[in-house]
Amino acid sequence: MSKLIVQKFGGTSIANAWCIKNVAKRIISYKKKGYALVVVVSAPGDATDDLLKLAHSVTNDPTDRELDVLLSTGEQVSMALLSMALNDLGYQAISFTGAQVGIITDKSYTKARIININSRRIKEELKKKKIVIVAGFQGINLEQDITTLGRGGSDITAVALAKALGAKMCEIYTDVDGVYTADPRIAREARKIDRLSYDEMLELAFLGAQVMQSRSIEVAKKFNIKLCVRNSFSKKDGTIIHEEAKSMEEILVSGVAVNRSEAKITICDVPDKPGIAARIFREIASANINIDMIIQNVSHTGRTDISFTIEKTDLKKAVNIVKKMAKKIGAKNVLEDRDIAKVSVVGVGMRSHSGIAAAMFKALAQKGINIKMISTSEIKISCVINKKDAVKAVKAIHKVFELQKPTRTRKAK
Ligand code: ADP
Ligand code: ASP
Ligand code: MG
Question: Is the pTM of this model over 0.70?
Fold first, then answer.
């Protein structure tokens, strides 16, 4: 399709009737310019959180299958209301659930992956000049069960549809002007970033910048789909996310991210023998728990401590497994720490410049913030600190790299 755009509107953009009408007008302005439009919607406002609470008011342990049946209903509300609003303004629109438009996923409920999209129905409706509205965050597996794509998963619906339909552009509409140098709710001085590479956005999203879901960026990168993150309440330009360009390397640090949803487990006094770490982490992996950072100290006494971080939601399950393992391998005890935060800096310029880690550590030290764990990759440095220090840390790091200034005027560290 020549002039096809996929637009995705997040929960805040369609939180109430006024917002839905605002979105409808925006969509119509594109329609008037001659674009064919596929619009992906999230659940209104906090609907997904409210549905989760509802599930937990009935049982402490809802099954993942039933959770998906429940959570998918939030998006169904938005799609119908937006379609009605468009019809009311005199434009033909039609709404579909993920299953109706053939978004086929694997069977892992609550974090399913899209394996195929059968776009026939969407194409038919586009040919009839209709605006097609699709419920984000959901699909159907081969057993015909409803699945959801992980929190923030409407982003991946939009990117995957852009790929399946050959759209030239995928616009992600949200409640801020684009991707910022830090979460604007935490650092008021944060600046909007004009352009970011896929890798930088991938790291920022993975490290806690909730503005985009990290898996959606992986897909966009793989298929080279240009993204634009922008505000549904303003006409400003937004942030373009695309392939890395040479000029991007001059920017040492693009942004700071913080993640407060992880917890740390420490296994104390582990015998320092080959195969022990393999045994512990094999057990955890087989319970489908993802591990983020791991540190093990060099042992001088034949015994050592191993610490690692996981999502807080997996903490109970992981501690139970680790306690059993500790007994088997003769480790002393198991400690858990829920009050951690991970702060990270991200930038492709790190590949070619040194001193970024030193500047980050110094900024934390000057504020008296203790570092509990460190990990690095080619374009990021992360530190685990006390959760109570998270906001202070983001602000200090933001300042040391002069992220509040336009990129041209920042001093190299
Ligand atoms: P939506 O409902 O549109 O999907 P989200 O709440 O998922 O919106 O994401 C938008 C929010 O992400 C913003 O309100 C902002 O507070 C937060 N955010 C975190 N980090 C960043 C960042 N680096 N840039 C922009 N927004 C960020
Ligand atoms: N409604 C889902 C969530 O809150 C999906 C999304 O908003 O992208 O996670
Ligand atoms: Mg989101």
Answer: yes
